[in-house]
Amino acid sequence: MKAIEVPAITGAYLFEPTPYADERGFFCRTFDTDVVRSVGLDPDAFVQDSLSRSVRGVLRGLHLRSGAGEAKLVRCSYGKIFDVVVDLRPDSPTYLGRAFFELSGETQTTLYIPAGCAHGFQALTETADTSYRIDRPHDPAEDVTIAFDDPELAIPWPLPITSMSQRDREAPSLAEVLKHRES
């Protein structure tokens, strides 16, 4: 497994496993404490694992947490997703930077998203299972959502949206969220 820096988002990393493939399929390590530690992250900081299942065209996000935020490891364990990260850390050299990824069950690549960044994804396959490893217990009172179609972000979602939560559909603009965070 190797760690690759994401230039568009300071502190973000892709963790690419080295799969062993044969006639049975493949085997690969999806988390390695030594590799995580090698880029300055605490592997013991992750306290919660979650899984979402989405169908083709479903959009989830853009989500982040208020307060201290939350860092997370995201991996598409089955299927394929278009994944988006937006840096909303005012002191970051990549503030308002955006990065797009295709994560898939075929590669099992994991994306590390630092606290203070918004995250969202769209399912590209009929079934897409997305695994999350989060560094703080979830507190719904800290949930923040940003409009997926905010023109300032201009995210190139690859498919027509087939479904999303009401919360995501009614999310405020980036400007509104940033204004609220400053007050």
UniProtKB/TrEMBL annotation:
GO terms for cellular component: cytosol. Keywords: Isomerase. It comes from the Bacteria. The active site is at 63 (proton acceptor), 132 (proton donor). Belongs to the dTDP-4-dehydrorhamnose 3,5-epimerase family. It comes from Streptomyces melanosporofaciens. The keyword Isomerase applies. GO terms for molecular function: dTDP-4-dehydrorhamnose 3,5-epimerase activity. It holds the Pfam family dTDP_sugar_isom. This is dTDP-4-dehydrorhamnose 3,5-epimerase. One of its GO terms (biological process) is polysaccharide biosynthetic process. The lineage of its organism: Bacteria, Bacillati, Actinomycetota, Actinomycetes, Kitasatosporales.
